[in-house]
Specification:
Elements (H helix, E strand, L loop, with lengths): L3 E5 L2 H8 L6 E5 L5 E2 L7 E2 L5 E2 L2 E2 L4 H11 L4 E4 L5 H14 L6 E3 L7 H9 L6 H28 L10 H17 L4 E10 L6 E8 L2 E2 L5 H11 L4 E13 L7 H12 L3 H13 L1 E2 L5 E2 L14 H15 L33 H4 L5 H17 L4 E12 L2 E12 L24 E13 L8 H10 L5 H13 L3 E4 L2 E4 L1 H13 L6 H15 L5 H20 L9 E6 L6 E7 L2 E6 L8 E3 L6 E6 L6 E7 L2 E6 L8 E2 L4 E5 L8 E6 L5 E5 L8 E2 L2 E6 L6 E5 L8 E4 L7 E3 L4
Parallel strand pairs: 1-2, 1-7, 7-8
Antiparallel strand pairs: 3-6, 4-5, 9-10, 9-17, 10-11, 10-16, 12-15, 12-17, 13-14, 15-16, 18-19, 20-21, 21-22, 22-23, 24-25, 25-26, 26-27, 28-29, 29-30, 30-31, 32-33, 33-34, 34-35
Helix pairs in contact: 3-5, 5-16, 5-17, 6-14, 6-15, 8-13, 9-12
Amino acid sequence: MPKTLVIVESPAKAKTINRYLGKDYIVKASMGHIRDLPKTKLGVDVEDKFKSQYQLIPGRKNVVGELQKAAGKVDRVLLAADPDREGEAICWHLKQVLEKYNPNIFRILFNEITINAITEALRHSRHIDEDKFNAQQTRRIIDRLVGYLISPLLWKKVGRGLSAGRVQSIAVRLICEREKEIKAFVQEEYWSITASLEAAVPPPFDASLVKIENKKIHLEKEEQALSIVEELKNQPFILDDIQVKIKTKTPPPPHITSTLQQEAFRTKRFSVRKTMLLAQKLYEGKEIGERGLEGLITYMRTDSVRISQDALEAARAAILEKYGQEYVPKSPRFYKNKKKAQDAHEAIRPTSFNLPPDAVQSYLNKDELFLYTLIWNRFMASQMSAAKIEETEFDIRAGRFLFKSKGEVIRFDGFMRLFSRKDGEGKILPLGVKGETLKLLKLDPKQHFTQPPPRYTEGTLVKELEARGIGRPSTYAPIISTIQGRVYVIKDQGKFIPTDLGLFVNDYLVENFPDLMEFKFTARLEEALDTIAEGQTNWQEYLKTYYGLLDQDLEKAMQKDSIKPQGIPAEENCPECGKQLVIKEGRYGRFKACTGYPDCSYKQSMIKKESKPLEETCPECGSQMVERQGKFGAFVACSNYPECKYIKKEAKDTGISCPNNGCEGTLIHRKTRRGKLFYGCSRFPKCKYATWDDPQNKPCPKCGRPFLLKKTRAKEPVSIYCGNEECDYKEDAPEE
């Protein structure tokens, strides 16, 4: 009989760990958190030291029962949830429900799911870290206070269905303020002048005008640019100075959660949620041939760039073997953590340096392989030699004008062999001679306009939140999902745009909760949580201070008048009658409606679905395919609509002709919005034939139409009937 029960969060993680442990161990999964605050009430006693009323999460009763039963049959219980605050909280709650069945409960930690890491963790079991749990509990209580106290105020004063969140509302504020900057931006015209030149030896090159009479230029009008071009046509272009510098470029540190999220978005447009789901799979383990289940990366929720000594030595040995001595620096590289980083575990890195991407590509899908390659290349590059770049700069005089041209040559690629750059590379200047006269090939004046700041994407929003110290990278995925689900923002071509609702709610919160909506205040909260986790700050005292500010702002906001009951005013007017539009909450979500109702019944849904670009191309016109959202859920279609109306048939085609007279379509599997399967005509919406029953590919003996297998009530036999409504043929179905 097993002597030790090991509890992790997920079945996948349990399966991987189980193969490393012997018969004395049994590994089970808690399925994540087992207890939380109640959904129907605040669940926190603000008058009695913030005591929390934790309850079993619905659906976890059977899981907890199995764990309690298993705990009673072993000598000890080891809690092995993830090595962070959330993991510590999971373990704390597990201990509360299991210690009655087995008092010998301990905590173990590992940063990677490998035999060495797990064996080492078993040697160093410890008790639950109460300070770390208190930090998580403080964060959870604050989120609950903000959500359950401000949201009802929004319902009462502004409109139903609204919500606020500690980090969620700050993320919306960033997006709203960027949009206001864009709207306030005044575009300005400016001009540049580029000279195409040729030295005595090739290749030709371009140089840009930078100074006039040793003063920086700013050409505002076309007349200025054209006047200078005319003057330059009569000037000799002299290579006045040549500067050659050898620059050393060092590699970036290995990935942490936020940089992995940003890089995956930048290169493949992966959402933050998708990146984290893929990383979770790589961490928990994949089947790698004869090796079996193998955890491929270290823990993916980290903001530390620290690397273990063993990993450094193994990486250097792998680099030496594959690339040679010149690619291995004299000493290992150590990177400095940011001031606010938690150093509980390492940066994200491969667990085995015998498994490069090409060795595992047949065992991973393309997205998993892409992410693993990102992690592998960045980590290995971080321990490779610096690149050496020869940078050349030409100063070119043409009368009172100064032109500059820069070029570079990579003399030694170093880490760039794995981590190549995309910008500024490849411009090579000729072997010029100082003082030589260059041949002018062309002068090119160009018009430009200043650009407003760009809207946030998922990648740049994560970068901004992290730079401001707001939230933790592990929370960014649910935050981004929430602000879209609330229709505070929408995504258009991958960029966040605040809705009228988002702008209005943001203004309301900023006006009424100035402390809680202030960026630095929210960042200081993260610092406070760190000091609570380190045992330096009393969590209840901090909550008392936080709640005091919140309660004060709530009291002031409650005394103010409500927004007009007819709805939240929108920025635009009705396109049909010209009256103002307002935002309302309906059965199917928020929508804009005309204030002229019932005389004007104009309505517009605010739930805008983005088109997700896909890698495949349209078989009819060659354009890129996109995933769209329709009345019956997601479908794949040509991006060139309406010029090309191709729609990919994702559903299984039965090949059975549609029974409607004159219809040339076939019956295919479809899904309702709730996921229920049915059969419908492939020519929908031109043909609306649909049925819940399974079509059989044989003709009706009475009218020649296809059969349908009809599944009647459980107490009645399954029968086969004709798909033609005008035909009454029916027979009992054969027994299976």
